Amino acid sequence: MANPDFNDSDVIFALATGAGRGAIAVMRASGTGSARVLASLCGVLPEPRRASLRRLRHDGEVLDEAVVLWFPGPRSYTGEDGFELHLHAGPAIIAGVADALTAFGARPAEPGEFTRRSVQNGRMDLLQAEAISDLIEAETESQRKQALRQADGALSKLYDGWAERLRIVVAHQEALIDFPDEDLPDSVEAELLANIWNLQAEMGEHLQDHRGELMRAGITVVIAGAPNVGKSSLLNALSGMDAAIVTHRAGTTRDAIALDWVLDGVKLRLIDTAGLRETDDEIEAEGIRRALFHVKQADIVLHLSGPGDVPEILNEAEVSVRTKIDVAPAPENMLGISTHTGAGLSALRAALSERVRALTAGAAAPPLTRARHRAGIQEAAHYLERALGADWPELRGEELRLALRSLGRLTGHVDVESLLDAIFGQFCIGK
Q1: CA 56, CA 101: separation in Å to the nearest integer?
Q2: Do 309 and 229 touch, CB atoms closer than 8 A?
Q3: Is 251 one of the annotated binding-site residues?
Q4: 130 among the known binding-site residues?
Q5: Kind and range of the H or E run holding 304
Q6: Residue 248 is labelled as binding a ligand
Q7: Least CB-packed of 155, 255, 389, 401 within 10 Å?
Q8: Which InterPro entries has this protein been placed in (predicted)?
Q9: Is 275 annotated as belonging to a binding site?
Q10: pTM, two decimal places
């Protein structure tokens, strides 16, 4: 949460690279007094956006010989004057430079404060700022590509386009309210209602697209089946890790074991669960209850069965897999694997890849990526639905204005101050 004692015009600084020893550490600063602070540290300011080698001094002592970059606003990340110091990454050097910056009137930045200032100064909107956070956190190729696309403004353009169309609808609605005696043709209201309906339909289709959330959070793949059917062995085989205990004793797995796995550039959350069976054991019964919970929440279920089993369907998203085909072959038209010999594992990975592609592929339109986006679009669509059902023009106009406000809150163009602390508090200090 923003500190009320801090001013948005303060010069802030933070380490933009990781803590610990290394070859280079980048210290960044931003604020209206950056020129004065940088001149106090290294003397004459370097040319804008040109790397220069400078000796950094404080109290007559040389702190480091560093590469200095000067970024006068508004052509900077935050839109303010700012600079970067590329230091030798020794802890003593970093601490000494931080002490000097503080002595010259700068202060340590709060989490996300650089990006927050960028939003406040119009260098990016809230959706792009969230994409920067996602880009930093990206673990897979799909997450990286999605975050870059959103940082480039793909989702912002979609929502801004809706907002612009809605502004035109609001203007027409206001005309109908303000000039009731002008004998406007019926086609004006008919076209207005059609535009509202089209916007609501597009938002509804957008809400049905879960690609962005799946790629950002990861696809949940649950391995389920009877005890001792090979679930833990499959978890170990797919992940390439000895993550789960494997024994011949049924009921070894009592609780869910989860680990992350990347398939075709997409993050998967693999969950091994307790064997499904009737039991009087209280601990095992709790494990089974949790297993069934994970099955219901899963995006994909690998439902394993052994030779001779006739399993019931657990989930519409399940893939039926017959295990231990080194003992007995799988039925025709059913995937079969043996974790003992490795037979069938390539075919299973291919089937899993196909399911993943089906979940993450879709229309060319950019998908929403966060619960905040989903809630905002749901709210806007709700107001549009109310507008379509309004009996009075004045009521319809109010519902349309509320829908426009909901879209504006998504990008940060209206009423966003209350959102800033929550969003940027999740950032690292140097962003």
Answers
A1: 11
A2: yes
A3: yes
A4: no
A5: strand 300-305
A6: yes
A7: 389
A8: G_TrmE, GTP-bd, GTP-bd_TrmE_N, GTPase_MnmE, MnmE_dom2, MnmE_helical, P-loop_NTPase, Small_GTP-bd
A9: yes
A10: 0.77
In which residue are the tokens 């799909």 written?
Answer: 142
Domains along the chain? 12-125 (3.30.1360.120), 146-209+367-412 (1.20.120.430), 219-360 (3.40.50.300)
105 is in an annotated binding site: no
The answer to whether 213 is annotated as binding is: no
Q: Is 252 annotated as ligand-binding?
A: yes
Note the pLDDT of residue 3: 57
Q: What are phi and psi of 369, to 5 degrees?
A: -125, -10
pLDDT at 322 over 80: yes
Instruction: Tell me: is residue 229 an annotated ligand-binding position.
Output: yes
CA distance 239 to 258: 11
- For residue 28, say whether it is annotated as part of any ligand binding site: yes
The string of DSSP codes covering 163-180 is HHHHHHHHHHHHHHHH-T
Q: Is 324 annotated as ligand-binding?
A: no
Residue found under tokens 């400078």: 54
Find out whether 26 is annotated in a ligand binding site: no
Convert the pLDDT of each residue in 158-200 to its tens digit.
Answer: 999 999 899 888 888 887 777 665 566 667 788 889 999 999 9
- At 341, which helix (H) or strand (E)? none
C-alpha gyration radius of the chain = 29
Residue 245 reports pLDDT greater than 70: no
Query: According to the annotation, is 205 in a ligand binding site?
Result: no
Residue type, 259: L
Confidence at 243, pLDDT banded by 50, 70, 90:
low
Q: Which of 290, 231, 241 is CA-nearest to residue 261?
A: 241
